[in-house]
Design goal:
The structure is a single chain. This protein has helices at 4-15, 25-32, 47-60, 79-88, 113-116, 121-135; strands spanning 20-21, 37-43, 69-74, 98-103, 106-111. With 136 residues, it is α/β, with parallel strands linked by helices. It has a single domain (4-135), classed as Glutaredoxin.
Length: 136
């Protein structure tokens, strides 16, 4: 587990633009079970999270169509929340960073780590925005 002071700025990248931080399994259950659409970022300390995933997620918040809710959990920190979120993301294997869009509690779009690594924030953002256009 990473020290909270180390990851605080990485969490703030998303929370300052409106992502709700989920800490417990119950937080995750409540977020996913909400009616409508929920965009989830499983955040992490790795370089592809800083260079590609978080910037892409932030860009997506400025799209003309957006989900009802933006939420985030942090791998290596909020274990209970991350474990529960990963259950909702099955059958995709655990990895971080990754992102998913849920509609009425069902996963409808997922971006795995291997889609994030080696890509650009702009390309990832376009994938997110296309999902928003389709499901939101």
């Amino acid at each position: 587990m990473y020290p909270p002071e180390l990851v605080a700025p990485m969490k703030e990248d998303l929370t300052t633009v409106g992502f709700q931080e989920l800490i417990t399994a119950e937080d995750v259950n409540q977020a996913i079970e909400k009616e409508g659409t929920t965009f989830v970022v499983i955040n992490s300390v790795c370089g592809c999270a800083a260079g590609n995933a978080r910037p892409a997620a932030i860009m997506s918040t400025q799209h003309s169509k957006t989900p009802n809710n933006f939420v985030t959990v942090f791998a290596g920190v909020d274990r209970e929340a991350v474990d529960q979120m990963r259950r909702f993301c099955l059958p995709y294997p655990p990895s971080s960073p990754c992102m998913g869009l849920f509609k009425d509690g069902k996963l409808v779009h997922f971006i795995e780590r291997h889609h994030i690594e080696g890509s650009t924030a702009e390309i990832i953002s376009e994938s997110i925005k296309a999902a928003f256009d389709e499901y939101c």
